[in-house]
Amino acid sequence: MEFLETDHQLDHNGKHLNIDVVCGMDVIEEKSKHQSMYLGATYYFCTNACQKHFDNFPERYVGDKA
Ligand SMILES: [Zn+2]
Q1: Cα 35 to Cα 20: distance, rounded to the nearest angstrom
Q2: CA–CA separation, 54 vs 61, rounded Å?
Q3: Distance of CA 48 to CAs 9, 15, 17, 51, 52, Å?
Q4: Pair 6, 30: CB distance under 8 Å
Q5: What 8-state DSSP symbol labels residue 31?
Q6: Could you state, in order of their start, the residue ranges of all structural domains in the chain?
Q7: Cβ–Cβ < 8 Å for 51, 34
Q8: Are 19 and 27 a contacting pair, CB within 8 Å?
Q9: Structure confidence at residue 65 as a pLDDT band (50, 70, 90)
């Protein structure tokens, strides 16, 4: 049953798969319980620890990348 999820990731590149901006891991939106809102965008994290880092210093991870 796991193989279906792998296909799903590859099919929808960038749609359901998010990067944990704290540690750089791939995070699947639907599966992640750790998420934060910042400047109107939702960010997903692999663990509660990563989410806490982000909540403390969101500007460090988001920044202005034009
Ligand atoms: Zn993480």
Answers
A1: 10
A2: 7
A3: 23, 22, 18, 5, 6
A4: no
A5: G
A6: 2-62
A7: yes
A8: yes
A9: low
Tens-place pLDDT, residues 44-61? 999 999 999 999 999 999
Centroid of ligand 1 to alpha carbon of 37 (angstroms): 16
Could you tell me the two tokens for 20?
Answer: 């944990």
* pTM of the complete model: 0.69
CA distances from 51 to 3, 15, 19 (A): 28, 20, 12
59 CA distance to ligand 1 middle (Å): 16
CA of 22 to the centre of ligand 1 (A): 6
Of the candidates 25, 28, 23, 24, the one whose C-alpha atom is nearest the C-alpha of residue 11 is 28
